[in-house]
């Protein structure tokens, strides 16, 4: 189990607006208040093109339009952290160039700069188009893309993308191959589900046709001309993609083994696949997909085949150093491999890097990701200093999830230092007024759940205690009571927090918020009984089931009554058997039977004769 940043993203993704599904950007929720938008930008004419400033949260980025090799060239400098995805459910970062003549009909040119998912047979490697109209949402185009794109993601705090667009091939209202348009409207989207930017501000992300007047305009014939490339850039990109696609298909073939293949045959296939990937790495040294697969396959092969998975992970990280979750994985791996000095050095480098500067939410996130790793490395004092560096950040007052992460981590550091007073003070968050809504509390509960699910029980228990035991949610009424029930279930799953779970079920039941919710109320009774069972107190569990029957029988169905009676019978029999077992244990403790002690290099073994 690695301390993967996914445990934070798991909760964060549930809270943020998905910005770029496969090809469709979305606006942030409309709060109903009119927003005064700035004028639509016109750009600055420079020798290299018409340049637009894009106000990214991390700093000023640029979008530059020019002509090259007969194509529209668009250069984007994106000041967001790049995310290559996880090769499975997360597609990572994307860019989308929107082009239209009349504003109501157009194309969205999607590009995934350097993703790590394996392309499917019917889909180009990293690019495709969508069409949109005023009457319909964007849909995938059946035509082959009329553009190419190339990106550089080897930065710590940004990435760059260059588009080449054959405008004659963008069949849309007002533009055909025989009658190409010269005047165009455009917009640009970039980012992933955690952070994104729509330019110009005010363009509708779901369907640009809704806000045609917010798109910026340009005249293709008057754009500055760049020196033409010796090789047609669109042809070069297409040839590279075709080559990558063919090599990937050949790679996948190496993993094909019979259904009844032996372990030796499977291992041989992995070895061949690894060798094929290394060959691909030489052909495409900047392709993250190859480096990612080498690392994943290296984990499978291990040292037995002379493979160093940590070195492969570092190679993948160096090729795209703005992926914070990969940094976390790398440091965690170093710590688990007893390479503490390297881990600490990397943490120091990351805290001093551009990634941790200039943008306060990211600075806070980097600190919150690094500090737990320091605790894992037995460097609690250093972790405490990292937490102290962000304790006064305004982000912790506005971002509830980061506030909870800070509280959980900083209290854990205080506990590791033996400072119980500070630990208690950190966990005792003051009540927030007005209280939390269900929407606000959901990412907090999801985060706490993820801690339990990923095996970080200490942090999970702390998160549960903050959400349930501190005054933080005390003004949230039924929301607080529901959180108590949610957290009680996970507390009960540990081997030691049944008493804490009991307290939460009991508080939820006594709150009165579920007086008309029979199912939830019955569930609280059952939860109370399960807590007593987990503590070995069968008699108390039986009493809770009796109370449930006595107080709620009129509202219980016949099936529910039968089920509870069966549980009650089980607990009653279990209690009598446990009492008999306690007698035997007590008698055995009083016996003075001879004992044989065997001394071994691992300790002593005592056998009672």
Can you give me a brief rundown of this structure?
By secondary structure, the chain is α+β, with helices and mostly antiparallel strands. The chain contains 19 helices and 17 strands.
What attributes characterize this protein structure?
single chain; 609 residues; alpha+beta; Immunoglobulin-like; seven-stranded antiparallel beta sheet; six-stranded antiparallel beta sheet; 19 helices; 17 strands; globular; disordered N terminus
Write the layout of secondary structure elements.
Layout: H1 6-15, E1 20-21, E2 24-25, E3 44-46, E4 49-56, E5 59-68, E6 71-78, E7 94-100, E8 106-111, E9 127-132, E10 139-140, E11 147-152, E12 159-165, E13 183-191, E14 196-199, E15 216-219, H2 233-254, H3 263-283, H4 288-301, H5 309-319, H6 324-336, H7 340-351, H8 360-376, H9 380-388, H10 395-398, H11 400-416, H12 420-427, H13 438-453, H14 457-469, H15 478-493, H16 498-510, H17 518-534, H18 538-552, H19 558-590, E16 595-600, E17 603-608
Antiparallel strand pairs: 1-2, 3-4, 4-5, 5-6, 6-12, 7-8, 7-13, 8-9, 9-10, 11-12, 13-14, 13-15, 16-17
Helix pairs in contact: 1-13, 2-3, 3-4, 4-5, 5-6, 6-7, 6-8, 7-8, 8-9, 8-11, 9-11, 11-12, 11-14, 13-14, 13-15, 14-15, 15-16, 15-17, 16-17, 17-18, 18-19
């Amino acid at each position: 189990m690695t301390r993967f940043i996914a445990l934070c993203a798991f909760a964060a993704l549930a809270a943020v607006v998905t910005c770029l599904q496969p090809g469709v950007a979305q606006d942030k929720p409309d709060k109903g208040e009119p927003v005064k938008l700035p004028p639509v930008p016109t750009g600055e004419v420079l020798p290299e093109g018409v340049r637009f400033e894009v106000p990214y949260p991390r700093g000023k980025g640029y979008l530059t339009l020019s002509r090259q090799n007969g194509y529209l060239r668009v250069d984007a400098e994106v000041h967001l952290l790049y995310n290559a995805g996880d090769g499975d459910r997360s597609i990572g970062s994307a860019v989308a160039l929107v082009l239209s003549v009349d504003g109501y009909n157009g194309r969205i040119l999607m590009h995934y700069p350097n993703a790590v998912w394996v392309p499917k047979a019917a889909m180009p490697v990293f690019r495709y188009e969508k069409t949109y109209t005023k009457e319909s949402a964007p849909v995938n185009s059946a035509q082959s893309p009329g553009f190419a794109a190339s990106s550089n993601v080897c930065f710590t705090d940004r990435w760059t993308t260059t588009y080449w667009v054959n405008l004659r091939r963008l069949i849309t209202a007002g533009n055909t191959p025989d009658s190409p348009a010269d005047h165009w409207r455009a917009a640009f989207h970039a980012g992933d589900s955690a952070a994104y930017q729509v330019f110009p501000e005010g363009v509708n992300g779901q369907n640009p046709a809704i806000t045609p007047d917010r798109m910026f305009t340009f005249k293709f014939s008057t754009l500055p001309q760049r020196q033409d490339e010796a090789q047609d850039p669109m042809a070069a990109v297409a040839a590279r993609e075709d080559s990558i696609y063919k090599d990937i298909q050949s790679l996948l073939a190496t993993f094909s083994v019979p259904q009844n293949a032996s372990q030796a045959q499977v291992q041989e296939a992995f070895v061949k696949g690894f060798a094929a990937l290394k060959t691909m790495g030489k052909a495409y040294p900047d392709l993250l997909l190859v480096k990612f697969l080498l690392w994943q396959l290296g984990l499978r092969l291990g040292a037995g085949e002379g493979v160093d998975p940590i070195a492969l992970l570092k190679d993948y990280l160096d090729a795209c150093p703005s992926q914070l979750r990969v940094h976390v994985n790398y440091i965690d791996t170093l710590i688990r491999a007893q390479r503490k000095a390297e881990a600490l050095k990397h943490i120091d480098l990351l805290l001093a890097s551009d990634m941790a500067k200039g943008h306060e939410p990211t600075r806070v996130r980097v600190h919150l990701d690094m500090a737990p790793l320091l605790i894992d490395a037995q460097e609690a004092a250093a972790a405490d200093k990292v937490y102290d560096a962000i304790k006064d950040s305004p982000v912790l007052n506005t971002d509830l999830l980061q506030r909870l992460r800070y509280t959980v981590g900083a209290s854990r550091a205080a506990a590791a230092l033996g400072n119980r007073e500070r630990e208690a003070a950190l966990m005792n968050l003051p009540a927030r007024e007005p209280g939390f809504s269900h929407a606000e509390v959901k990412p907090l509960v999801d985060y706490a759940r993820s801690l339990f699910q990923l095996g970080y029980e200490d942090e999970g228990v702390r998160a549960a205690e903050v959400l349930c035991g501190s005054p933080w949610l005390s003004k949230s009424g039924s929301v607080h009571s529901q959180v108590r029930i949610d957290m009680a279930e996970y507390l009960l799953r540990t081997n030691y927090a049944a008493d804490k779970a009991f307290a939460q079920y009991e508080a939820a039941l006594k709150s009165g918020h579920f007086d008309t919710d029979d199912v939830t109320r019955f569930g609280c009774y059952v939860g109370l009984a399960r807590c007593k069972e987990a503590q070995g107190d069968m008699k108390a569990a039986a009493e809770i089931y009796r109370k449930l029957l006595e107080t709620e029988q009129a509202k219980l169905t016949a099936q529910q009554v039968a089920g509870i009676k069966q549980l009650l019978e089980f607990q009653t029999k279990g209690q009598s058997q446990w009492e008999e077992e306690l007698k035997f244990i007590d008698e055995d403790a009083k016996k003075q039977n001879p004992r044989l002690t065997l001394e071994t290099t691992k300790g002593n073994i005592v056998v009672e004769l």
